Amino acid sequence: MDPTLLSLLDSIPQKSPRSKLETHRELIRQLRRKGCTYRDIVRILRERIGLHVAVSTIHSFVKVRAKHRKQVQYELPPLAPESNSSRVNPDDVAARIATLKAKPTEQKAKPKHFHFDESEPLKLVDQGGSR
To answer: CA 28: distance to chain centroid?
Structure first.
């Protein structure tokens, strides 16, 4: 980069953080990792540090800063080469499916609840006990 641009960059002071929570970022991160809720964090900041913030402020602070990490967190690892022993032979699978299809299925007769005859009204079948 051009030396004049570098000197210009060096002369501009760095801005202070926009959020009053930025100085407590690591504390908030550790509390969330320990399972503290946003309400717990608000209470701890108020009681221990004297910082009054709303629960929604903590939530927004965490959410905005988690966006970048979330992309990396959900990135899938590269595929590991599979060993031949863990692979299933398609012919074996087809044979197992054919065996299961050829196996006779036992169908149980459903008990009849009603008796139907066109010439008579619908009747309830007695199931062994009278009411």
So the answer is: 22
